[in-house]
Amino acid sequence: MKAQPRILVAVVLLVTLHLAILLAGLVAPADPLAQNRDFPFAPPTRLHFVDLRGHLHLRPFVYPWTPRPETFNEYEESRDREYPVQFFVPGAAYRIAGLVPSHIHLLGVQAPAQIFLLGTDNYGRDQFSRILYGGQISVAAGILATLISLSLGTLIGCISGFYGRWVDESAMRLVELFLVLPWLYVLLGVRAFLPLHLSSVQTFLLLIAVIGTIGWARPARLIRGIVLSAKNQSYVTASRGFGASNAYLMRRHVLPQTYGVLWTQAALLVPQYVLAEVTLSFFGLGLSEPTPSWGGLLSTLQQYNVLVSYWWMFAPAVALAVVSLGYLNIANAFHDRLQSVSG
Amino acid sequence: MKYLFRRARHGILLVIGASILCFLFSDLAPGGFFDEMKLNPQISASTVAALRAQYGLDRGLPVRYGSWVQSVLRGEFGYSFAYNTSVRSLLMLRARNTLFLTSLATILAWLIAVPLGVWMASHPGQWVDRICMGGTSLLISLSEIVLVLGLLYFAVRTHAFPVGGMVSTGFDQLGVLGKVWDLTTHLIVPAAALTLASLPILVRHVRACLIEILGTPFVESARAHGIGRARLLFRHALPAAANPLISLLGLSVGGLLSGSLLVEVMTGWPGLGPLLLESSMSRDLYVVVGIVMASTVFMICGNLLADVMLVIVDPRLRADLRAE
Fold first, then answer.
1. What interface predicted TM-score (ipTM) does this complex get?
2. Hey, where are the domains in chain B?
3. Which of A38, A94, A165, A260 is most buried by a 10 A CB count?
C-alpha cells in the first residue's frame, strides 16, 4: 500500500512526457531543424520576474542572448528590452502527430528574441524542441519494437506450449540460442549487414524490426510456461469435452491468463528498447542528422569540449532516465500485483 | 563429471547454432564490403567481381560456411577484408583486453553487491534499505551511456585520472611499477562505469534471495540457539541463498559484455567493442562474425562456469548427480 503514491507519480510523469512528445509541435517553441548559426551552444534562456528598475512582473519575461565580444560561444543578456513570455503564440508551421496542420505554440516570445528553455546545440538549434521531437523517434521506437517482440513471443510461446512435442522442443532450442546471444553485439552485427545509406523512414522501420525481433525469446519462454500450465487446468479440459475448438480454447481460456505477464514484460521492454535505439543512434548507426533522436542528441557529448563546457547537452539523458524510471516503477507495480494475485 | 560433460556438449551445440544463425543473418543482408568500391569510378566492375571471387563471396552460403568452419579449425577464424589479415590476429589482443575489463568489473561488482545486499536484507524497510533501493533504481535507469558520460565529465573536469585508451604514450619506457600505475589509472573510468552499471541488479538479487532465506524456519531456529547476527547472516543464510546467485553470475555475463561494448567504445578501451563498431561500419563480414561468436562463447563459458560452481558449492546437487 505504501508504494501507491510512488506509482501514481510515475504514471503522471509518464503520461505527461508521452503527451508532450506526441504533441511535440505544440509544446516545442521552435522548429527542431531551424538553425541559428549566430547562437551555437547558447545556454538556457533565463526567465526573469524582476526587471532592472526593480519592478515585479507576474508574467515572466526574457532578455535575448547576444554573443559576448571577443569570446568564443559565450553569451550575455542584452537588457535593452524585456520580452514577456506569451502563451499560444503563432510560430513555425508543424503537424500535430503528423496529421493536423497548425502553427500555434504553447509558449514563445516576440520575434527578434527567442526562448531556448534548454539552450541550443552546435548549430544553434533549440535543444528543448529537439528533445521533444527526438522522443517521437526514440520512445516510439521503444514502444513499437516492444509490440513486435511481444507479438512474436506470444505467437511462438502459444504454439510451443499448446502443441508441445517436437514443435515445443525445437522452439525452445531456438529460444535458448537467442537468449545466449549477447544482444548488443547481435544488434550491431545485424546493423552491420544492413545498408548504411537509407532514408530516415526506412532506417526507423528497420531499427524497430531488428530491435524487436532480437528480443522475442524471453517473452516466448514466459508465455509458453503459462500456456503449458493453463492448458492442463480442469476447466480447459472440461471446455474441450464440450467440443470447444483449439482456437476458441486459446482465445477464451488460455490467452487471458497471459495478460498479466504480457503487461509486466511490456513495461520492462519499452525502456530497454528505447535504450537500444539510443545506443545505436549514439554510435551513428541509427537515424542520422538532422533528424533528432535522443541517442543522436547525446552523441554530441562524445566531444570532450562539449562534454565539459555545456551542461545542458546532458538534458536528453535526464529525459531518458525519467522514461526508464517511470516504466520500471510501473513494471514493479505489475509484478507485485501478479505475485499477490497468484501467491 | 558426466553432468559437466553434458553441459559442455550443450554449450558446444549452442555455439554451432549461433554460428549458423550468424551466417544466415549475413546472407539476408543486401550489400557488403566491396559494394562501396563499386561507387569508385577508378575501380572497374570486373576488379570488384574478381575480389569477391578471391574471398569466396560469390559462392553459396553452405560453401562459405564450410570454408569458415575449416578456417576456424585451422585457428584463423576467417579473414578480414579491411585489415588483410586473419581475424584471429585481430581478435586475440582485443578479446584479452575485454576479458580483463569485464572480469575486473564483475569481481568489483560482486565484492560490493554481496555485503551491501546482505546489509539491506538485514534491515528491510529501514532507511538504509530505502536509500539503497532508491539508488539502485536510479542506477538501473541511468544506463551505461549516461554513466560513462558522467564519469568522463568528472575525469576531464578534475584531471584526476586520464581518459581514453588503455595506456599512456611512452608506456614502454616505464618501469614495472610505473606500468601498473599507468594501467590502473586508465582503468578507473571504464571499470567504475561497468561496475556501477552491473551493480544494481546484483544488489537487488542478493537482497531478495537473502530476505527469502531469512524468513525460513532454520534461520529462526539458529537465532534461537543464540548464534550471533554476523555469523547468522554470512555463515548460515548466505550459503543457503547462494544457488540463485551463482546462476545469476553466469547469466549476467551477457549484460556485462553488452555494457562493456558501450564503455569500451566511449572510453577508447582497445577491446572488442571498438573493433566491432568499426567493422560494422565497413561491413568487414568475418570480423563481425568473429566478434559476435567470441562474445557468444564468453557467455556460454560464463554459464558453464556457473554450472561448475553450483556443483562445487551445493552438496545436494552433487548427491543428486551421484544418484543418477
1. 0.78
2. 2-87, 91-146+190-323
3. A94
